[in-house]
Amino acid sequence: MTAKVLVRLDRVTRDFTMGEVVVNALKETTLEIFEGELLVILGPSGSGKSTLLNILGGMDQPSSGEMWFGGRDLSRSGDAELTRYRRNEVGFLFQFYNLISDLTARENVELAANLVEHPLPADQILTEVGLADRMDHFPSQLSGGEQQRVSIARAAVKNPRLLLCDEPTGALDYQTGKLILGLLAKVNQEHGRTVIIVTHNTAIAAMAHRTARMRSGRIVETRVNPAPVAPERIEW
Amino acid sequence: MGVLTKKLIRTIRTTLGQFLAVTAVVMLGISIYVTMNTSYHTMMYSQDKFYLDNNFADYYFHVVRAPQHVTRHIEALPGVVKATGRLQEDVPIVKDGNERATARLVSYPLPMDTEVNRLQLLEGRLFDKDSQGGGVEVLVDPQYAAAHDLTFGDTVMIVTGGHQVPLTVVGTAISPEFVYPMKDASTLFPVPETFGIFMLSHRQAQQILDFSGQLNQVVLQLAPGADAERVAARVEDILEPYGNLAAYPRDDQLSHAVMQAELEGLRLSSIYLPLIFLGIAAAIQYVLLNRMVRAQRGQIGIMKALGYDSGQIMLHYTGYALAVAVLGATLGSGLGLLFVSAITGLYGQFFNLPLVSARPDYAVVGHGFALGLAVATISGLTASRSVTGIHPAESMRPEPPKGGGRVFIEHWGWLWTKLDPSWRLSLRTISRNWVRFGVTVAGVICAVGMLVVALFANDSVDYMLHRHYYQDQDADYVLNFTAPLPEPELTDITRLDGVLAAEPFFQVPVKLSFAGRSEDEVLMGLPADAVMRTLFTDTGRALPVPETGMIVNETAAAKLGVQVGDQVQVETRLGLGPPRHSTFTVEGLNHQLIGGGAYVSLEQANQALQERNLISGVMLRVDPGLAQAVESEINAMTGVSAVLGRQQELDNFYELLDMMVASVAIMVGFAAVLGFAIVYNTAMVNFTERRRELATLRVVGFSFRGVSGLLLKETFLQSVLGVALGLPFGLLLARGMIEAQSTDLYSLPVIISAQSYVLAALGGILFILVAQRFIARGVRRLDLVDVLKNKD
């Protein structure tokens, strides 16, 4: 692939101190993420994939090593710089959707839209994810799949260059999961956004342009997928 | 409307009870602030204007009798702008049924234009300079006129110079010096039934009082910046040949002094009461928002992940406090402005002061808002400052269990092992939320303290009255004679049917001097074995009247700087005869709550005047069954200038106290809101925070009672501590208030009865129980499955 590098991790480590124990959640990880690719990061729980995702998303910072986004070294950035990065460049999708319970679907999306200068129209995005008639419902009135779709809309509305998804189908049933993956593929293909999906579900790797496999805090293998499969054809 | 604003509004809706409770506290705080400040400013402004309009005197001089032209010499002194010479004399009023009343005749030179102490006409017209054949025209103070139904043309008969003189009422008037028309300091408040101010032309007064071409009072207007004490000394020098009786600045003028004390009390309350309320409101909001931030940790994490910065999120939470402040301040200002006219109206009943209509003082309202918003901003930002520490990645994981470990009580094994698990759980919860616990306890302390303050005034006045009327002065009647009499003439009175005992006294106005300082006082001569007048030390030990030497009241002693053993110079200042000088050794200091005085034996009082066996009044004990008869007999006596009846005085007092009931009720209400708001909020916060835990306990098998009992234990511990500390705090608060307001006239002792303490404590427990009922309802409604399933 000759595409432009969007994010580059260079020997990134992340240690957590839990009481008297130091846990090396991420060990000397080096990875390049290309503009417009759909990357699936696979690994069992505890392998460090969420830590990696958090660092990629500017929610956490490396203990050592560098993370470059465009020309910026975010591993040295302060809180304000990271906030700007999250605001303008990153969209998040969480396993448990993490919608604000006090806000309706539309408002949850607007909450994100308000942060950027040129957001996509919230209603249009919600319609695209199939929630045209559920916009004014509160999260408690929506099914898990619907909540995750709101979550996608919320991430997409800012039109970020990087969409980070942490086990996006983890809490969903099979059919709904596939639907969500379809939406993510659409964001990647039609809007040209870089999408990174972190999952322990190996089947999802089939839809990726590239997969990275993690174990015990390291990337043990990256593999280019020459023929990505449409999500609706994936079985697990 | 912004999305965050919508979120804010919904958060308010879901915590509506708490929101309203804290809003109520802010509302009360702001309303007190606005009411009291506006009232204070209105009163101050009215007072200033009234004083200025009528040229209220800066200095007073009483003399026995001086020629009218002496004012010209005084006016020539540097620092004196104007000196007005006039007459002031208390004379008996002849009333139907031999009732006693005193008229204070005050003369006014006409025209009044530039004179000091002018009067302001309320009804009718100004009196004529000379008698028009229709008798002497007078203006009467409105309270006396109202108490006696006097209207234009009515006649009041007074006695002066041994014969009766009719006065024709031509209207009512007020003057800066009679804003609070008290007869003297010992009466404590105006009694219009028995005392009135009668204003008449100076020339008329000179005629009926037999003071032709003379005066007995000079009132001064001083130049701005003049050295009052120096001017006064020179005026006294000029007046010396005419018999100085008293000299005092405006600050010591009775009406002014009482009003200043009252206004000072108002000013202090206008500061400390709102501070208590806003402080508590801030504390409640702190607890509320702090817990909200913790509970919404995950949401904050999402917002941060989306790209909101800490400042924006903190502002969002502070918005809750600001909403409380804006609503509370709006309602409070409105309420406050409504109250203003009620409060100033109440003052209007007490003071003869033309009130400048209480306009809404927008500056005060503005300050109220600013104060409310400032408090909200501080509490909001402080409570939400933990937002900055929330890491978006971490926040979305469940919060790790809070630092376990032992709490301090667990180190006392003997106690800990005796506690059942639910007590242990409650104690641990409290120990891990020290700030919240402390804030709640502080709130309960304030509320209970306020209850104590609301209730204590009654106890103190009760005590003061009992002490004054049954211990210091244990007589049914006190009679003052128009002129000193030889003691044997008392038999006329002691022989009256129903008089059980009589004790004479001899009062002489004097000037006490010691080490360059001097004080006007009353020298009171008492029989050696006096039982109707008893002096006490500050420790409550009775002080017998010494055969030689004097006993001085503590207030005067402190002002003079004298101690036991010191020699005090005494100069008599009686209207009759030349001033006499003598020296007395101070044998003791007595502690009294009302009035002042220096006490000597009857013989020594006579010696001070170089007289023998004279008395100026008598105290009586009478047979209760015959009191009426005795009273009408003594009222009929000529030669008696004033009669004070204990029962009548007490009745007057209690009537006045009844007027305080409303203000006590308001205070109690305010304290209840305060107490309820804080206990309810904390309990609610505890409940919401632990819904999951409580639901788990229910699932495990705890009964509804068991679970709400768990919360009750925590509330109970907080409240018991709050009540226990609130009672002494109330005592301190009461002391502070009294300290600030006590005057030379009287000092209210801080006495709090056991009953008041019990009532305050019960009040405290009551609002705890009410708050608990709301919480119990919450526990009953816990939807176990739902709570356990949902993450906040």
For the largest beta sheet of chain A, what order do the strands appear in spatially? 6-7-8-3-9-10
Oligomer state of the chains in this structure: heterodimer
Our Rg estimate of chain A from Cα atoms comes to 17 Å
Quick one: CATH superfamily of chain A?
P-loop containing nucleotide triphosphate hydrolases
Q: In DSSP terms, counting alpha (H) and pi (I) runs of 4 or more, how many helices of chain B?
A: 24
> Strand-residue fraction of chain B?
15-25%
Percentage of residues assigned to helices of chain A: 25-40%
> What order do the SSEs of chain A take from the amino end to the carboxyl end, as H and E?
EEEHEEHEHHHEHEEE
Based on CA atoms alone, the radius of gyration of chain B comes out at 34 Å
Largest sheet of chain A: 6 strands, mixed
- How many domains of chain A, as an integer? 1
Structure explained in plain terms:
The complex is a heterodimer of chains A (236) and B (792). Chain A has 236 residues and is of the alpha/beta class. Chain A has a single domain, classed as Rossmann fold (3-Layer(aba) Sandwich), CATH 3.40.50. Chain A contains six helices and ten strands. In chain A, the strands form two sheets. Chain A has a six-stranded mixed sheet with strand order 6-7-8-3-9-10, sandwiched between helices. In chain A, strands 2-1-4-5 form a four-stranded antiparallel sheet, with helices on one face. The radius of gyration of chain A is 17 Å and the shape is globular. Chain B is an alpha+beta fold. Among the domains of chain B are: 1-57 and 255-400, no CATH class; 59-86 and 218-252, no CATH class; 88-210, no CATH class; 499-622, no CATH class. In chain B, a hairpin with a 2-residue loop joins strand 7 and strand 8 (163-174). Classes of the chains: A alpha/beta (236), B alpha+beta (792). Chain A binds chain B through residues 54, 57, 59-60, 79-80, 83-84, 86-88, 90, 92, 94, 96, 98-103, 107, 110-112, 114-116, 140, 154, 158, and chain B through 2-4, 6-7, 10-11, 14, 298-299, 301-310, 391-393, 396, 790-792.
